[in-house]
Amino acid sequence: MGTSEPRTGNFPLLAEGREAREAARRGNRPLTPTERVIAAVEAYTPEEAAERTLANAMLADTRPGVREPLLINLGPNHPSTHGVLRLIVELDGEVVKEVTPVIGYLHTGIEKQCENKTWWQGITLVTRMDYLAPFANIKAYTMAVERLLEMEVPPRAEWIRVLLAEMNRVASHLVWLGTAGLELGAMSVFFYCYRERDELLDLFEMVSGERMNHRYFQVGGCAQDLPPGFVERVRTFATELPKRIDDYEALLTGNPIWKDRMVGVGVLPAEDLVALGVTGPTLRAAGVPHDLRKIAPYSGYEHFQFEVPTATEGDCFARYLVRVREMRESLRIIQQVLDGLPEGPTIADDRKVVLPPREELAHSMEALIHHFKLVSEGFEVPAGEAYVPIESPRGEMGCYIVSNGGPKPHRVHMRDPSFVNLQATAPLCRGTYLADLIAIVATLDPVMGGVDR
Amino acid sequence: MSDVSVQIEAASPGAVVAESEHVGEHTVEVRPDRIVAACRALRDGPSQYLLLSDVTCADFPDEPGRFRMAYHLTSLATGTRVRLRTWAGAADPELPSVTSVWPGANWLEREVYDQFGVRFTGHPDLCRILNPLDWDGHPLRRDYPIGGEDVQFTDAV
Question: Is A311 helix (H, G, I), strand (E, B) or coil?
């Protein structure tokens, strides 16, 4: 079947098939399952796929399993895969027999780069990983460094961190809701959610100067205090948003098309999800109330009143309901932070780690020396290792650092929830329809910047 | 000895090499060939470390074992955590895979294989995951060159 003319040129997916065979040849071993699929999908041009589909359609016997399965390549660039995720799907008719996710298209070697930067420069890098949850990335990283330094963070700084982390959770879930709507054909939800998210990005810009990739959390606290007018604007937003969420729910929760696409789709038993390492809303929607803010509170989360939304069905619709309720709970936390925000410094007073205040540089020689040493050499972190997990919008975001006592990390590793959660794609999709695969990947909410790092 | 070490020793006598507590984190070092037994004992033990949070590695070129693995286990019931540590060996780094205990270790171990070159025996799908499949070398090793290497992907231009 197919054209006999050898295909050459720079079609990148062909190169990947060659790479798979080359890797197996070098290792003197057979192809692994993933490599075999990557090499096999190369055999398909769009023309060949059409030819095969036609041959299948000509078969008189249409019972499932009679037709030859079809390998379809979805991605790496596909409007419904949340970024550069490549899925190789083995189809029998419209039923998914197997899915092989192929990742790495956004791999930028951030963990390696961190080893060659000072500890404080690493903040700039890690914030770029999960680009929808930059505050969660830096929070895990700075908390890990603070743990090795055995450093106390002032209460006001902790509260501001909680505030921004929860605002970030709302922003991330809004993007999730908007894009999931877009992928399932509910286009107006996308516009509404991005309207709200833009207000949040404006607020982030107000506090950190950047709409994405914030470098606002520092080792020891926050870069500066909240700007004037910020608290009032957040309060307006936090009072307004629940009504808007009511609107989205009015559009979606009872919507028969939305429910048809989601109810009963993509279910795995909770114990299978745990065995796969899945955390976050996906696990909570299957009935496991595992939320690090409750079970192992950090940054003073034990002082706030909030519920951990769970559901029992474990399908796409339950994941939708859990995320929507999580937005409401985050808004509750935001209100409590605004009401009780303590006064005081926003960064620890440790001149060996924290930059001196800007105004001191003009008249204090000592401050100038500290500033110069910190910026040129960086600070030293005592030898040891630390793993700090926090609850990011997608689950357990862990930062593992190893220090050898120097001003640069020996190793920085981020346990990104998207990376681990994405492993559940294949077991969730087996036996469903191709259209359900889009709904399942959408409700897993992988962010490829975090998956590939 | 802590509860964790007692449970590991009960399942596999002689498995625990060392134990330490630092900045509030508990680390148990086990013999490389006993890592699967140790993981299984903790998963099925009374504290129920059901969730394998993370598997990762750090390269210490001057140490005899060179590749230091860290397995981060979480108890869903109590939220307590423990880190299992083991060394993969310098010349031919190889460890048994824990995918038989937690299927979720699959990608995490593939990442360690990709970035450090530690091979996991019994792994169902041990190939590269983040780098291209036929990539040369293992980027997160400390002796991997930075700068000055060939420009990759020029064939795709």
Answer: coil
